[in-house]
Specification:
Blueprint: E1 21-26, E2 47-48, E3 52-53, H1 55-65, E4 69-74, H2 79-88, E5 99-104, H3 118-123, H4 126-132, E6 136-141, E7 145-146, H5 150-160, E8 164-172, E9 180-184, E10 190-195, E11 209-220, H6 221-232, H7 241-252, E12 255-259, E13 275-276, H8 281-290, E14 318-320, E15 322-323, E16 326-327, E17 329-331, E18 334-335, E19 340-342, E20 345-347, E21 350-351, E22 356-357, E23 362-368, E24 373-374, E25 379-385, E26 390-391, E27 396-397, H9 401-407, E28 409-410, E29 416-418, H10 420-426
Parallel strand pairs: 1-4, 1-6, 4-5, 8-12, 14-19, 17-20, 18-21, 19-22, 20-23, 21-23, 22-24, 23-25, 24-26, 25-27, 25-29
Antiparallel strand pairs: 2-3, 6-11, 7-13, 8-11, 9-10, 9-11, 15-16, 28-29
Length: 428
Amino acid sequence: MTDLPIPDPRPAVKAPLARHAMAYVLAGGRGSRLVELTDRRAKPAVYFGGKSRIIDFALSNALNSGIRRIGVATQYKAHSLIRHLQRGWNFFRPERNESFDILPASQRVSEDHWYEGTADAVFQNIDIIRDYEPRYMVVLAGDHVYKMDYELMLQQHVDSGADVTIGCLEVTRAEATGFGVMHVDENDRVISFVEKPKDPPAMPGKPDMALASMGIYVFETQFLFDQLRRDAADPQSSRDFGKDIIPYIVKHGKAVAHHFSRSCVRSSSEARPYWRDVGTVDAYAEANLDLTDLIPDLDLYDQNWPIWTYGEITPPAKFVHDVEGRRGQAISSLVSGGCIVSGASLKRSLLFTGVRVNSYSAVENAVILPYVDIGRSVRLTNVVVDRGVKIPAGLVVGEDPEEDAKRFRRTEHGVCLITQTMIDRLKD
């Protein structure tokens, strides 16, 4: 007599789909609207939040979602980005079935071109992706600031039977003119996809709102490969996901929208979904300085969803001198390790690693990148100071708009971007 198997009384546990996914981060963008901030680095490598780089948010989302295979495609001025990835993201172990690949444009398909577009940046590395045999591909932009659980997006993709699932934001129709916009039906199936339309289609039931693409896509891997090969054979294609791949699938397959509000990660202090494209100096300054608020919209202190990055070994921040007019102090500010505020005052400012602020200086509404040295008796207001700049003693910025515009890059909202080249010109 054969014994029958004893039924397991425990409910079946659905294995996370992230175990079978690969995250592919597109990090080759220049970010030209950040002007001098991207003269020496790609936009994903731009500093953010006191310790991190912008790309750390997409990478941390993937890691925290349970994805253990990650590829990063780089192209424009990639050295600082690659160095950061090597230092901060080198803990993946192949013996744990993990991988982290940095994939610079290297003429692997043809000797006469680099990555020609976002889709081509994936196409040229099909053989590398195939070796890992991921069932799903999560294609990400590497230049946005947000917290998101990609596992929930993967689950929707499988449950809906979509050919592609597109991450999207609800924005006003006026804002939507700067995005790729999806027209969806009541079941979130994408009917049309339009790049930067003058008259964006409204959401069902929300006539004043539109669905804007986040540049996040989920595919089954083999389907994606088929689409990339088809697109590569089309001489009219610009090799871009938003302009070519996605519109083709919308027309010939099944594309479904995934609302960011369904998978955004929020701590108890975050009142609303947070997503930022810090693509201009004004937006960059505002997003960084918002972190100094009593209860900021983005919670970087959430231990349940940490933002991983390269952690430099630095001593604690230090504040010295305590006499009237020469008191080291900071009000509503974030000050990173290795900083010394010596007899100077900070107000609503963010200091990255290793900044020195010398006596009798006052800094307000300022984003100061790593290893800046601010001399004595300096007054800085509404500024972004690039890495390693030496601010000469007595410099005043932010009080005379006309004078500021002559010496530095001054934005329409009155933020001055200061680089070492601009400082050196003052000596001429």
